[in-house]
Design goal:
Elements lengths: L1 H27 L3 H12 L12 H21 L3 H34 L3 H10 L5 H10 L6 H31 L4 H33 L6 H18 L4 H12 L7 H26 L9 H24 L6 H9 L5 H12 L5 H18 L4 H7 L12 E4 L9 E6 L20 E4 L2 E3 L12 E6 L4 H9 L9 H4 L2 E3 L5 H8 L12 H8 L9 E4 L2 E9 L2 E8 L16 H33 L1
Antiparallel strand pairs: 1-2, 2-5, 3-4, 3-5, 6-9, 7-8, 8-9
Helix pairs in contact: 1-2, 2-11, 3-9, 3-10, 3-11, 3-14, 4-5, 4-7, 4-12, 5-7, 5-14, 5-15, 7-8, 7-10, 7-14, 8-9, 8-10, 9-10, 9-11, 12-13, 12-15, 14-15
Length: 613
Amino acid sequence: MEAVSYIILIGSTLLIASVLTSYLALRIGTPLLLIFLGIGLLAGEDGIGRIAFNDPQTAFLIGSMALAVILFESGFDTKLSSYRAAAWPAMTLATVGVAVTTGVIGTAAHYLMNLPWAEALLVGAAVSSTDAAAVFFLLRVGGITLRDRVRSTLEIESGTNDPVAIMLTIILVEAASHGWGSPWHVVEELLRAVLIGGVLGLVGGWIVVTFINKAQFETGLNPVVTLTFALFIFGGTNVLGGSGYLAVYAAGLYAGNVKLRGALELRRFHAGLTWLSQIVMFVMLGLLATPHEFGEIALPALAIAFLLILVARPLAVWLCLLPYRFSANETTFIAWVGLRGAVSLLLALVPVLGGLDNGQMVFNTAFIVVVVSLLVQGWTIGSMARWLGLIVPPRRGPVERVELELPGNADQELVTYTVHAKSPAARGQRLPRWARPSLVIREDAVVPPHKIKPLQPGDHVYLFAPPHQLPLIDKLFGGSRALDQDDREFYGDLVLSPDATVEQVAEMYGLPLSLANAKLTLADLLLHEFGGSCELGDRVRMGDVELIVRDMDDHGITSVGLALEPTTVTKPRVPLFRHPAEWAGLLRGWWTRQTFERWKRREQLKERRGGDD
């Protein structure tokens, strides 16, 4: 009994220390996961705590359950609109990208560490998966707002590459233990795991939603239902030969994108549970590590870490994003935001559990790679986004939206706005009845409804509205981008009508004209260039200027920006990430200039010879 109490006391102390130190980490911008890992190391057998924890099987069990919880929340918090914006590039990164990273790092590990090919590739597979929680937490803390396509690509990739990396690790452990076998058998196992996992996950998600909506439990019981069902789906799918990690992610994705009773409370519950899972995983893995063993492999592990950051990840991202319309700077950022985290350490435990001779070496290498990734990439995400010019100016829409569960078909949301200084509402324009606030907070005090006129800049306005009216309300409280000088670099110098034709714009500004596009409107041209789906900030070059999607609503593009000169948004900071078509254009331009210079020198030589005669 006393031993159990000591274990509980030590565990809770470590969790409290993690939470308290996270406050300091937020103040200085330190990656939180690095803090949690550091606490585990300090409390471990080589640290000041001297806690001896050497049970990889227990660590893998707890870590697997925690990862299942994290993946369910990741799917639950991902909107299908993100898939519409970035499904193909993200899925390419999650599959081909994982394979490329595994191959490059595996080759390096084979030659740098003298590991057999199967075990060397295990090092690559273990560090091929990115950590979503760390990336997006750092983006939120740094006040970084990215374009939807970039953010969605990172989000979906991180949610879907975990199952791929896990299946690849299991296959490689079997190959290291029993030989490679038939490659078709490996492909068959992988496809079966993905198919079974995806189908059972969607079925499980449907069961969860139906059960909660039909049973109508007390609200406090719904989180218990989703948690237990998520673990049941995870374990059941693994038993049936599928990927439990993919299944639990798919179940969360389905549940988060349909009508679900108590969805807001469920999101809050799973967000908190995900943080607890992250803390438990990293502290536990820190306890499991034995830093005194790192000296033997420190140099090759550091070389592999920097090879991953500077070569393997950038190469994989560049190859995977070639077919898609990402700028050089966006490709550079996606390549840099490849943080490794808990999944990499959990995967590195599989060779240890599989009894491989070099299993501990694989784990120690992965541990060093994760620490370097968190130190180098985790501390520089914000500065990298600013250097690449990828931060989107803040939108003028609602600060917060809360879906309300009302009886019948009453479709209303409670929305919050901060009144913009140059908005129509702040300038005294009369508000329509459907846009009048239900509550106003001014200088941290509630203002009675009969005293809110006129609204002042900085007022926090709360009102009820149907979703289809939000674009109109945005214009009343948010103001116009045309009034903001700071947005010019991102949205352009001039504002054009989306109904203007390409021919009209070309004639007005003296731009080159393609006859095939002459009769298209600017909106149609942009939609055609981006496959029928645009988002704010999408750009199309037209001669020396750029056309930019400036504003959109539910019906399409409402205004187009015109950038007269290239900005940091389009100037490639890292030339290596240019699209092959751009390289071809630069090569043609160089060849043309060289040809012209040779012709010019010949003509000058002829003139001199003629003068001599």
